[in-house]
Amino acid sequence: MSTIASDTASGRSEPGADGEFTHRQIMKVMSVLLVSLFVACISGTVISTALPTIVGDLGGQDQLAWVASAGLLTTTASTPLWGKLSDLYGRKRLFRIALILFAVSSALAGLSQSMGQLIAARAAQGIGVGGITALTQAIMADVTTPRTRGRYSGWIGSAFGVATVAGPLIGGFLVGSEALGWRWTFYVGIPFAVAALVMVERVLKLPHVRREAHVDYLGAALITGAITSVLLALSLGGQKWAWNSGTTYTLAALTVVLGLGAAWQERRAKQPILPPHLFRSRTFRLAGTGSFFVGFAMFGAMIYLPQYLQIVRGMSPTRSGLMTLPMVIGMLGASILSGRLITRYGRWKAFPLIGLPMISLGLFLLANLKVGTPLALAGVYMLVLGVGLGLSSQVLVLAIQNDVDPDDIGTATSSASFFRSMGGAVGVGVLGAILSSRLSSGIPELMAERHVTPPPGTDMGHLLGSPSAIHDLDAPLRGVVLDGFTDGLHTVFLTAAPVTLLGFLAVLAIREVALRGGRNAKEEVGADDGPRGGGDCGGDRGGDRGGERGGERGGDAADAEPDGSSDPAAADLAGPVSERAGARG
Predict the structure, then answer these.
(1) CB 515 within 8 A of CB 340
(2) Can you tell me the distance from the alpha carbon of 388 to that of 378, in angstroms, rounded to the nearest whole number?
(3) Of 77, 235, 458, 542, which has the fewest Cβ atoms less than 10 A away?
(4) Can you give the pTM of this predicted structure?
(5) Are the CB atoms for 146 and 159 separated by under 8 Å?
(6) Which residues pair with 112 in a beta bridge?
(7) Does pLDDT of 583 surpass 50?
(8) Rounded mean pLDDT of 313-336?
């Protein structure tokens, strides 16, 4: 075991002789993951304050929706691909590629001279973000055991919440600076990405067993096409084209055809992107469904809460970001607390069973926001929502990771992120369509009811312009628009509240299995989520599977190497892991 460098001797995060990482080693890896995840998340929030300025500089108001949607589309579509490729080629190699792609595309976005160039750069940036977010979870699963993973998962969830608040603050400062400007909303992430890349090279040492790779390119193309079609329909339907239009029907037909083609291809592929056997797991299906509805609520709230604060309450983007601090504090505190309790007791199911109803309650409370609602009370509503999100989001990822074989951990983890992103995309699209419908019908009704007539030539586009333009309207007309917008948001949150409870029902149906202390959970508990044997080990099926996998891993030990290096440390690591697995069998 002399080839395995210790934490203190090498300064690198390599496992010890027993194949386990120490807390100090894990925290070194976590520092890399948190920096990378923060910069990936902030790329989507920092530009929110810059969009009006970008349109004024580059033109193309009709293409504004594409700037916001392009990154979301490619992030969601690419997430399962990153996970599968990392299972085949190693996490470290793919993580490097994701960071480099993010940095290069961010630079191209900042250098854009037209809206077309900016949209293309944002799409490429979204692919990099998809890789960073998917591989962050998978790498954390590589360096922690299922039992201890909860201790660190709260920090992963908090990175997203901090980016939600920090993004508008940083963006507002950059856009308002004469020396910098909107292009720096894209440049600002590059130093973080470069720093993360340097940290990856110095810190991250992951064992990776080389395997024969068969990339399912056809499956990848079909899955990406189906996801892109449905997200385009949901993101731009009712805005760029009518719901009842040939474009909508064409995209719907493409979604069905490509989805069926992907299902057929994944069943016959040697190494599928989304392995069908994962969907035979009850926990995978139900926890994925729960993640979908968590994403539906989380992204919906984070998109429409700032609109209430900026449009209805007249706040600046920077101040509206600060006002969402209660939600972020709730997410951070609940994520860390639930993670520590999961690590202590090994039980996870109670947290989403509490969290999902709290999300629904928080959305119901937000539905009661009015023009004159005290800001302190609005903060309490956001805190309730944030606590619910913190108790649910990362815990469901832990449940999925605990249920799959170690060889599938990257694919399963990216699938969990994919379900959440899909839920967010669907939520934003559906709730956006509801809001647009309510505004287009509600504001004219209020005008007629209050006998308010807009100036000649004023249409809905003028009435629903930027927050500053709305607050420049005459008092009677401004009151109509603000009340109409408040009524629309009421409908949005009131719709989202009961939908979230569907995730609660899905989690309720999961048969809980305690998180195990060993690195390879499936070797201890068996391959299904049916009844287990006593103690820390599974029944007969779990024992047989442990023996089989122990033999396989022992045979692969000679071919193992740390991810992205020629150091034989992983071969030494594979030995004790396989011995323990065989002993369990």
Answers:
(1) no
(2) 16
(3) 458
(4) 0.69
(5) no
(6) none
(7) no
(8) 80
